[in-house]
Amino acid sequence: METRTAVQFSVFLVNKPGVLAQVTRALGGAKVNILAMTLVDSQEHGVLRMVIEDPAAARKVLTNLNLPMTEAEVLVLDLSNRPGALGDVATTLGESHVNINYAYCTGGAPGGRTTGIFKVADVKKAQQVLKGVGEKSKARDEGVRGRPARR
Q1: CB neighbour class for 140 (10 Å; exposed up to 12, middle 13-18, buried from 19)
Q2: How far is it, in rounded angstroms, from Cα 109 to Cα 80?
Q3: Which of 16, 48, 71 is the last residue of a domain?
């Protein structure tokens, strides 16, 4: 399975109307593309986690908005959009004792691909563990002689 790493921005937002719009409007105005995102809330604030196509441009926009933020290295995986794809990755990492702190995925088209973002305890180990998984997943997705794969 092909893996790559990316910079994830965690932006801390006041939990009130219009704040998410302010951030996403500023990123859009600067032509900064969001590849994946999730927003988790609490009583006082939300945490907007995003993987961005151009991290340097995003950093500039977010800094200009003067919002508290952090950056972290995350694992990015292209997954088939099928039942069990996420479970396969989680199982493989778990069996190799790689902890997943949190994960989120983009929506995918039926029969298409989706992007999984994983914050793991050890990125290098996770990449090594997942290297051999790709061929098994590819074979399962393609099935035998063009027939749909058995699940």
Answers
A1: middle
A2: 10
A3: 71
Question: Residue 94 and residue 2: Cα distance in Å, rounded?
Answer: 18
pLDDT average, residue stretch 98-112: 84
Closest CA to 34 of 63, 12, 2, 62: 62
Q: Could you give the CA distance from residue 78 to residue 85 in angstroms, rounded to a whole number?
A: 10
Same domain? For 100 and 118 the reply is yes
Q: Note down the domain range covering 94.
A: 73-137
Is residue 109's pLDDT more than 70?
Answer: no
The span from the CA of 84 to the CA of 137, in Å, is 10
pLDDT over threshold 80, residue 35: yes
pLDDT over 80 (residue 92): yes
How many structural domains are present in the chain?
A: 2
113-120 and 100-105 strand pairing = antiparallel
- Do 34 and 49 lie in a common domain? yes
Report whether 38 contacts 49 (CB < 8 A). Answer: yes
For residue 96, the domain's CATH number is 3.30.70.260
Q: What is the CATH number of the domain that holds 54?
A: 3.30.2130.10
